Amino acid sequence: MGFEQIFSSFPEVVKPIRKLTLKEKLIWTGVVLILYFVLSLTPLYGLNRNYVAQFETLSILLAANFGSLISLGIGPIVTGSIMLQLLVGAEVIKVDLKTPEGRKKFQGYQKFFSIFFIIFENAAYVLSGALPPAVPGIVGASILILQLIAGGLILMLLDEVTSKWGIGSGISLFIAAGVSRQIVTKAFSPFPDPRMQLPIGAIPKIISLVASGNSALAFWPFISIIATIAVFLMAVYFSGVQINIPLSFGKVRGFGIKWPIKWFYTSNIPVILTAALIASLQMWALMMANAGIPILGEFETVQIGGGRYTQVPVSGIAKYIQHPSISKIFESGFNMDALKSTLFYASFMIIGSVFFSYLWLNVGKSSPSDVADQILNSGLSMPGFRRDKRILEKVLARYIIPLTILGGLTVGALAAVADIFDALSRGTGIILTVMIIYKIYEDLQKAHMAEMNPMIRKVME
Question: Do the domain assignments include residue 332?
Answer without folding.
Answer: yes
